[in-house]
């Protein structure tokens, strides 16, 4: 039985999860039902490689108007087939698809020379421009380098979110100034991440999104468990505490921001 607290019905949205991941093979539909039971009005689920395309299509077709998708070959995967601009743009315009990504730079898992990664990133930005869709940015140990490319490519015109943010205040402000959004995961709730909460406290609420990046990064008090979209509310709770706002206000505002950025065809 789901706990009572999770039956409050302020609408909210997980702006970034991976529901096609095998970690959901045992209870995928139950996890989606728990989202609906908790008052969630949408979730954006991301595919990161060719193998995700079919399951992503299937899950979007099974939950139209509730689950939305994005696809791009992840910057962590040098060895995988990279689609061309036309193919990525076409995919981004399929029913239920709302963005290109995740894309960006990863200097944590991958080491220089990384020209292939920068080329892939620029290709994804070109595809987003062709499709007229916003971008979902992954930047790990590479936040300022990713921001530089986003500025050069004028990605603010398309709209973008730097997801699972764990960079500096300077970069977060740079994202906002470039027309982007900042999204926090469960890492915002981790005890050691006081500096990140200070950053969350300083970024305007209208540019913040919440996410789980599930099945990874379960927030406190679920840390160590398989993460799922319904837990994204714990990220809103941490933002509310950092900003001195009401929890419900942050749930609703981040849902509205997500609808606006990704032009989701739903009302919140
Ligand atoms: Zn992700």
Automatic annotation (TrEMBL):
- Judging by the UniProt lineage, the source's domain of life is Bacteria
The alphabetical list of record keywords is: Hydrolase, Metal-binding
Residues that bind a divalent metal cation 2, according to the entry?
138, 163
**GO molecular function terms attached to this record:** DNA nuclease activity; hydrolase activity, acting on ester bonds; metal ion binding
Q: Which Gene3D superfamilies match?
A: Metal-dependent hydrolases
Question: Per UniProt, where does a divalent metal cation 1 bind?
Answer: 16, 18, 102, 213
Q: Which InterPro entries match?
A: Metal_Hydrolase (IPR032466), TatD-like (IPR001130), TatD/YcfH-like (IPR015991)
| One Pfam entry name | TatD_DNase
Q: Which family does it belong to?
A: Belongs to the metallo-dependent hydrolases superfamily. TatD-type hydrolase family.
Q: Which NCBIfam families match?
A: YchF/TatD family DNA exonuclease
The protein in question is named TatD family deoxyribonuclease
- Tell me which species this is from: Sutterella seckii
């Amino acid at each position: 039985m789901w706990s009572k607290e999770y039956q409050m019905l302020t609408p909210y949205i997980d702006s970034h999860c991976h529901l096609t991941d095998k970690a959901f093979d045992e209870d995928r539909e139950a996890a989606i039902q728990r989202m609906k039971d908790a008052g969630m009005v949408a979730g954006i689920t991301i595919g990161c490689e060719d193998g995700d395309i079919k399951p992503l299509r299937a899950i979007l077709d099974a939950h139209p108007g509730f689950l939305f998708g994005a696809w791009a070959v992840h910057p962590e995967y040098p060895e995988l087939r990279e689609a061309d601009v036309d193919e990525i743009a076409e995919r981004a315009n399929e029913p239920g698809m709302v963005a290109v990504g995740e894309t960006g730079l990863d200097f944590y898992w991958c080491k220089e020379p990384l020209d292939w990664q920068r080329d892939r990133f620029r290709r994804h930005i070109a595809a987003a421009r062709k499709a007229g869709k916003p971008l979902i940015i992954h930047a790990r140990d590479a936040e300022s380098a990713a921001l530089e490319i986003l500025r050069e490519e004028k990605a603010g015109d398309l709209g973008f979110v730097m997801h699972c943010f764990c960079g500096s205040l300077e970069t977060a402000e740079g994202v906002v100034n470039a027309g982007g959004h900042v999204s926090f995961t469960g890492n915002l709730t981790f005890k050691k991440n006081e500096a990140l909460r200070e950053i969350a406290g300083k970024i305007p609420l209208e540019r913040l999104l919440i996410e789980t990046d599930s099945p990874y990064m379960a927030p406190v008090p679920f840390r160590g468990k398989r993460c799922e979209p319904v837990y994204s509310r714990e990220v809103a709770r941490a933002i509310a505490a950092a900003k001195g706002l009401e929890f419900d206000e942050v749930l609703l505002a981040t849902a509205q921001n997500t609808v606006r950025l990704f032009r989701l065809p739903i009302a919140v």
